[in-house]
Every structure is written in C-alpha cells, then in structure tokens.
Amino acid sequence: xVQRLKKSIGAFFIILIxxxxxxxxxxxxxxxxxxxxTIVTLATVGYGDITPVTPEGxxxxxxxxxxxxxVTYYTLIMVVSLLLEGQIRDLLxxxxxxxQP
Length: 101
Known about the structure:
The protein is mainly α. It has a single domain, classed as Helix Hairpins. Helix content is about 80%, strand content about 0%. It has three helices and no strands. Helix 1 crosses helix 2 (about 30-40) and helix 1 packs antiparallel against helix 3 (about 55-100). The longest helix is centred in the last third of the chain and has 45 residues, at about 55-100. The model has no long low-confidence stretch (mean pLDDT about 85).
C-alpha cells in the first residue's frame, strides 16, 4: 500500500511538471502563471482568468485535465485509504487485546 502511495505521489509530481511545461510551451505563459494554471486545473477550480488561446493549448488542456484529474484523485484516495486502514488496524488491535484473557 505504501509503495503504491509513493508511486502515485511521484505520478502527481510528474503531472505537475508536465502541466507547467505544457502551459509554458503552448500558451507562452511565465513559470508562475503556468504553475498557477496547472494548480487551478488539477484542483478543478477553473477560475477562468487564464484560458487556453491556441488550438494546441486547448488540446493539451483536454488531455491534461483527464490525466491530471485521474492521478490527483487516485493519490488522494491512496492517502485516505492508508489513513483509514491504519485507524481500522488500531481499532481492531485494541479490541483484540481487550478480549483476550
């Protein structure tokens, strides 16, 4: 489980880098603007203050949203799953110890 979490966090950072790079290349944004748009896109907030202008940028955003959404939410599911699994293990461990003579 922890190994999958590490891989998903790594995939998240790769998606983050791809997003920054894509917005800098296709939309000619500065690093800070590209980082901002990448985070807004991954968080599915979509403020709309910066939108893709070029056809290439729009195609990039379509694929980036699908890939970024998938990786981001998979990572969140892994984190929540790991936390819940640890809590359940603690609860079962405590009950098991309490019932044994």
